Amino acid sequence: MNFLEPNTNAMITAPCDDGAEQPSGSAAPDVPLEVLLDAHHLTRLLSFTTPEIIRERGYRTMRDCAADRAELRRLGFSDRQIRGFPILLIATWFDGTIVTYEIRPDTPRLRDDKPVKYDSVPKSAKRLNVLPRYREWLRDPKRPFLITEGAKKADALATVFRDAAIASISGVTGWKGRNDYGGVTLLTDFDHVAFNDGRFVGILFDIDTLTNKMVRAAQDKLAEILERKGANVYVLDWTKLPEIMREREVKANGN
Question: What is the largest CA-CA distance in the chain?
């Protein structure tokens, strides 16, 4: 499913302009996505989300040039992380503001002989990742609230569930934070989310939930905590999303 048929002939990788100011945050509406993103990055993003959401998220291709390397350093990434170009830069939003970034290099570095597909700013705090459009909806318990892993999965859900507030966390235990004493707590960002009156909350973690005990345990613990806050929590299955979509379409059409 593609949300736009891009003109691949026009998608020429734009060279870095080392003298140009580097944009950050949501892309200005007059800047073509083909300028902000390499062809293969844009094609991948359009396979699961819309140009509108790509622009709001602020996805951007970072290329192997002095200007983009300097920008990544300014954002807090280390030289050890700034490799494997081109790199997809992904913003983490909360309360209408970018709070941190993560990167996805085309050629990831290795950690313990395993590729680090997504790299975070060193020592950055975990945050609930919520696009600006959902800022007010978080506070409305009448709105369904969906939570998943990673910005890209959240942006895919945003194309389908137009009436729900959607958030993502970094990894299955990304909902855990730490207090001033080093104790493990629920992320304080969740204090901005209303769970009263039996709010519908759907958790969509990776498809290996049924076979990976760690993923299942993290999912169940989060569900337990949110239920104690007053929500009705449902663990949703990615494989059943087409069925859920059909049911929602039928209900919307009054059939």
Answer: 58
- pLDDT surpasses 70 at 3: no
Our measurement of the distance from residue 98's CA atom to the centroid of its chain's CA atoms, rounded to an integer in Å, reads: 12
Handedness of CA 76, 215, 230, 241 (dihedral sign): positive
- Measured between alpha carbons, how far is residue 117 from residues 48, 102, 105, 255 in Å? 18, 10, 7, 43
Alpha carbons 103 and 32: distance in angstroms, whole number: 21
Kindly report, residue by residue over 21-52, the tens digit of the pLDDT.
444 566 666 789 999 999 999 999 999 999 99
What's the total number of domains in the chain? 2
CATH code of residue 215: 3.40.1360
Q: In this structure, are 140 and 107 located in the same domain?
A: no
Distance CA 175, CA 110 (A): 25
Please name the amino acid found at residue 58. G
Clarify whether residues 99 and 151 are in a common domain.
no
Residues 200 and 230 in one domain: yes
